[in-house]
Every structure is written in structure tokens, then in C-alpha cells.
Specification:
Layout (H helix, E strand, L loop, with lengths): L12 H24 L5 H8 L3 H7 L3 H25 L3 H15 L15 H23 L9 H11 L9 H19 L14 H6 L9
Length: about 220
């Protein structure tokens, strides 16, 4: 799975087509920005998505507007995965399925844009909803006794972000998937509650996590 449709069939005509185009562009943007960094041109995204620049700019007025929309769409995908996880009667299975789904979606791939674009009210609101849902997933698994107590929602978010990256010189898809699945299984096993050493250092800072999305101040 590369991206989740978020029920484009619920829309009709041009709305459905626009939604499908958004998802194709999102997947292309994930590839381009993780490989080339936040300075990659929109033309590279359009080329990878197989759409014309005119198509992009008819829908989005600027590169910033496009990237803001893609960030919201990526978080909406993660929210849909969180809803599935919270609906699972097994808290650990819900957590594991959420992690795997978000890694399949590469929902953290646009983290490379942090600090490079202005965040909108919609981005911030969707981010709060997404993090709140993840906190519920983590709390359920910890109450169930199978997720180690010193893991935080931000730890899970950063873990997903690391696995969302994709090397420019990608291996054969089947081999890449096999390697990734093995490493994800190792990571999930490390999240299980058991007697052992506590996690090193301090939990990730929520303030720092939020602050990194603030655009850098221009040098004077």
C-alpha cells in the first residue's frame, strides 16, 4: 500500500477526480521531498506524479499552498488509520496496525518540510487531532499492560517518521518491503512491556516538536 484513498468514491465527478489527483501528487511529493529535501521544485513533483504544472497551479496558487494541502492530507490519512486502531478490540493489535499503516502510508515523509512553510490554522487543528488520537492509542496499549510504560506518543511519531524515509537509490520493491517489514517487527517488539532497562534520556519534548514547524527567522 502506498496511499489510502480516504473514500474518494464518496465524491462525484470533478470532486472525486480532484481527490484522486491530490493523492497521486501527495505520493509523488513524499518521494521527491524525502529524496531531494524541502527545496525540491514543484516541477519535480508534477513530473513524478505524471501531471502538468498547469494542472497543479489551476488547483493551487503557489508551491506553499500545495505543500500546506499535502500536509493536511497526510495527517488525515494518519487520522483514518488511528480510527481503525481505536476500533480494534485488542489495544496492542490496534497500536501495531496503526504503526504499520502509517509506515505504509509514509505519513511522516513530509516532516522534511518542517520550518520551511508557514503552518495554517487547518494544519495545526489537524495535527492536534492526529496527536490526540495517537495519545489515545498509546494510553490504551499501556493500560492493557503490553506497551512499555516509558514510551510516549511522540516516540511513536518519531519512529514512524524514521521509517517513512525512502532512499534515492531504492532497492527492488519486494526486497525493500521485506527489509522494512523485518525492521518494523524488530521495532514493535522493542515497544513491548517487559522487564529490562528503561529507555535512555528524556522523553521527546512536545514544545520542541511543535516549534520545529515554525518558519526559521531570516538572518539579520
Amino acid at each position: 500500500m502506498t496511499f489510502r484513498s480516504l473514500n474518494p468514491q464518496s465524491a462525484h465527478g470533478r470532486q472525486a477526480e480532484a481527490r484522486r489527483n491530490d493523492l497521486v501528487v501527495l505520493e509523488a511529493a513524499r518521494d521527491v521531498f524525502t529524496a531531494e529535501g524541502p527545496g525540491a521544485p514543484v516541477s519535480a513533483v508534477a513530473e513524478r506524479a505524471g501531471v502538468g504544472m498547469g494542472t497543479l497551479y489551476r488547483r493551487y496558487g503557489s508551491k506553499t499552498e500545495l505543500l500546506q494541502r499535502l500536509c493536511v492530507l497526510a495527517m488525515e490519512q494518519a487520522l483514518a488509520a488511528a480510527g481503525d486502531a481505536l476500533a480494534d478490540d485488542d489495544p496492542w493489535a490496534g497500536l501495531a496496525s496503526y504503526v504499520r499503516a502509517c509506515i505504509d502510508l509514509r505519513s511522516g515523509a513530509l516532516a522534511a518540510l518542517a520550518g520551511q512553510i508557514e503552518t495554517t490554522a487547518g494544519m495545526r487543528a489537524t495535527a492536534r487531532r492526529s496527536m490526540g488520537a495517537l495519545e489515545q492509542i498509546v494510553a490504551r496499549a499501556q493500560r492493557d499492560g503490553r506497551l512499555r510504560a516509558d514510551v510516549t506518543a511522540l516516540d511513536i511519531s518519531y519512529l514512524i517518521e524514521q521509517f517513512s524515509r525512502r532512499a534515492p537509490d531504492r532497492a527492488e520493491p519486494a526486497e525493500e518491503r521485506n527489509t522494512r517489514d523485518r525492521l518494523v517487527a524488530i521495532a514493535l517488539d522493542g515497544l513491548r512491556a517487559r522487564h529490562g532497562d528503561p529507555l535512555p534520556g528524556r522523553p521527546p519534548s512536545r514544545a520542541r516538536y511543535v516549534r520545529r514547524w515554525a518558519p526559521a527567522s531570516p538572518e539579520s
